[in-house]
Amino acid sequence: MSTLPAPALLRAEGVGCRFGGVRALSNVNLAVGEGEIFGLIGPNGAGKTTLFNVISGLTRASEGRVLWRGGSLEGLGPERISRCGIARTFQNLRLFDNLSVLDNVRVGMHRVAGAPLAGALLASPAFRRRQAEVQDQAMELLELFDLAALAPQRAADLAYGDRRRLEMARALATGPSLLLLDEPAAGMNPAEKDDLCARIARIRERFALTVLIIEHHVPLMMRLCDRLAVLNFGERIALGSPEEVRHDPRVIEAYLGGRPAGQDP
Amino acid sequence: MDTLLQILFNGLSVGAVYALFALGYTLVFSVLGVINFAQGAVFTLGAYFTYLFIGGGVGSNGALAGLQLPFALPFWLALLLAGLAAALVSVGVEAVAFRPLRRRGAEPLLYLITSLGAGVILVNLIQILMGAEGYALPAGALGWLPVTITLAGASVRTVQVLLLLVAAVVVLALTWWLEGTRGGRALQAVAEDATTARLLGIDSDAMIRLSFAASGFLAGISGGLVGLSLSITGPYFGIGFGLKALGVLVLGGLGSVPGAVLAGLIVGLAEALVPGEWSGYKDAVAYAFLFAVLLLRPRGLLGRPLDTRV
Amino acid sequence: MDATLPVQMVLGALLGLSVYLPLATGQLSLATPGFYVIGGYVAALLSTGVAALGGGEPSYPLPSLLLEMGLAALLAAAVAVVIGRPVLKLRGIYLAIATIALVEILRVLNLNLPFTGGAVGIFAIPQPFADPWGYLLLSALLLAAVCWLCARLGAMRLGRAQAAVRDDELAAACMGIDTAQVKLTAFVISAVIAALTGVISAHFLNTWNARQGSFDASITTLAFVVFGGSRTWVGPVLGGLVLTALPELLRPVGDLRLIVYGLVILAGPVVFPQGVITPERLQHWARHRPWRRPSPRAGA
User: Fold this and answer.
1) Can you identify the CATH homologous superfamily of domain A1-85+176-265?
2) Where are the domains of chain A?
3) What is the pTM of this model?
4) C-alpha distance from B107 to closest chain A C-alpha (Å)
5) Tell me: the pLDDT tens digits for C13-27?
6) Which of A67, A177, B135, B171 is 20 to 30 Å from B20 by CA-CA measure?
7) B1 at the A interface (CB within 8 A)?
8) CA-atom Rg of chain A in angstroms
9) Do C265 and B284 touch (CB under 8 A)?
10) Which of C164, C160, C198, C159 minimizes the C-alpha distance to C79?
11) Looking at this predicted complex, what is its ipTM?
12) Residue numbers in C near B291 (CB within 8 A)
């Protein structure tokens, strides 16, 4: 077990999760340091998304707890957790399909976009200035994800790759310190994957982010992540730098089915 | 002064009607995931059909004023035919209010409106044809059966005994059909997963029609039974039963057959036990149950856990 | 000209908006007639029971009417908060059934409580206006205010949050939106609109009883929204206006009018699954202004 960089931004302590008789997670320990890109890999059904759901407050852990900057997130709903500065994307894309691309991002800015009620109802100059600011910020984010030209379109009408990027832009709009990305490269071609890699590295710099990422594409993860944890059947079977994980015999056995790591699965 | 036994008996017989009504909702709900709000009108139709088949004459206000069928059937046959007629109407409701929307993959909310539209049309057709007046069971409709019989020292109305018996038979028959026959199991398969059922070669359109037919039959029978045991208070009399049956449905757990039966009996008994001086509030009992259940155990007494997958 | 029908139409539009607001947040609530009836009873009880308000005067004082509206709004908001917190946790059909039950419980209470006048209800409610035109002005002002609110919501954070909750409640929560609060806010505004409409209606009708808030009313008001369209506030306004007028306009058809009404709400959703008015159609009309000049393409 590798030593944890202290102080950890996010720490899972003995997290377990049961649905009926099925154990989705058991006794998972990990700590993500500030500024890291931390990868979660493991076969389908290993519990990676469940761990994301526990962290983001969508699923309650049956055992253990998640600490955020040293404080427990226990019992907090997703909206409270989002306000702590944890944002996420979804494996199967959950955009607001009937809203415009711009409004998807503006909904993400919910926490900062508030305005006094009277001004809003009367469309006061101050309210309009504030709205213009919010819109400018939203457009800036869209630009960063090459979506600015699509701003007025309905989110449902976007192409798949654009939808993936919009979900990241929307998550960033909440102003997070930790970004949880659930299979952001799913369904992308190699060029798009390269582009995504560079983009994640870029936004980490720009927004001083910590990133926790689930991805099946192992070479991408080896390249992108500072550290990796490997889940199998709900248990964490390895943790360390990409180099360490690559040579961990348990990983080779469990996850890669005996093949040497590093090859495209 | 009613004895406790009589009160319980009244409660059970009303509860049996709620149960049948809720079962009708359940059949359609489990297949389509929606509530058929035309069910109340079909129930009303069942009562009017029974009344006519049994030899009752139309009053003086409707377009059919003075009409009397040339035959007078025994009540059990009238009830059965009324159930079948109601089943036919229910299938018709499916064809005009549900199928066009299903073809378009419309929001489930819209079925609420269209089925209600169908209900409004049916109820007003009854009103035009038969007038707004109430109808009571013609004397001697039960043939050679006595009006009351004595059970365990208490005198109860024969028609209530019949009501309970018929309801019991119908519930048993329905359970047997659902669990023991190909048609019933196919219906359950469609309810479980329509896509997979289609892959298995089950015609889900036919199954949906079947569920409407069965639920219409249940509604028709229960309408006829209530018409026999109480009276038909006018074209709108099914609406109140239909709303209470919604409460019963939720209490039992949406989609659960034994739940609907159990909940129907519970609500019927609870209503009967409301003391006389509070009788005005009797109609609220079902809804009070409904609220309690929704807040304490949203899946209902015997329902499956709610789906909360992410 | 008699303004009775226009008043009813405007009141219908208001009730349509009351159903629309929760629906715009993804909540199918049929509670509107319940709050409508509460508003009506507040007006009826106060104006006939509290002499100081001026019920005995030939024309009921306007300030008293406004006071009634204020109190009715407060009461409806309080009931909505108390009921809404638990009930809005329910989803889809469960919420619809729970709100139907709420309306029915209120109906039973109104029939049986010692002060609501039983089945007959309360009559001889004093009139603040000599003819329907006064009611038309008052209700039209209220409608304008509610429309303004709905139009502003589109530009406001709350309106966007509502749309987000309607599309995907879970994702909305992950954006930091307190979805319970957003749903409750919509429910409370909806209740207040219904109660205010009830106050005007009780004076206008001169009498008030439990039948005003029945299951039929739940469905009629829902039909306003489904017919008009639930994706923009213009839909329920149009639906309320048209569907309220329809039975009256159909009076010559006599007994058949309710059947025609039934046909309209049966066929409406089939022909216009999104309602007659959709944002796309509004945009299209705004661009082409068919009412000003023929569209160039139309002539080709």
Assistant:
1) P-loop containing nucleotide triphosphate hydrolases (3.40.50.300)
2) 1-85+176-265, 99-175
3) 0.89
4) 14
5) 999 999 999 999 999
6) B135
7) no
8) 19
9) no
10) C198
11) 0.89
12) 98, 101, 105
